[in-house]
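The records we work with from here on pair a chain with its fold. The integers have meaning only within a learned vocabulary of local backbone shapes. A complete example follows; check for yourself that the lines match position by position.

:::
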Amino acid sequence: MGKDVIGWKLDASERAGLLDRFEPRWREVVADHVTLMSDTADAPLPGATHGEIVGRADDGHGVEALVMRIDGTTARPGGGTYHITWSLGPGRTAAESNDVIGEQGWLPFDEPIAIALFPARF
């Protein structure tokens, strides 16, 4: 079996509202999922069905991400930070979001924004 990713998808209508609220800085808009882990062909889907957007990271060179808190933590099991890759500039990839967050940190929002999450395999 090929590489599977498990995590959460965003509801389409909620995503649209978030895109209105947080205008993407870069041309390629991703803004559709939160990764829990990769290479998980046999792993069960996560149980959480909601999270909170707690901050934002942008390296100023083409990677923008919204930082998530799920089950009380921003730390993803196995390393990294829960996030939604929000937008990407030319030549950049969603896989770079964790590196940007880890190397440059992120700016917290004054108030978390609760959102629904839908466990998924993608």
Notes: The mean pLDDT is 94.
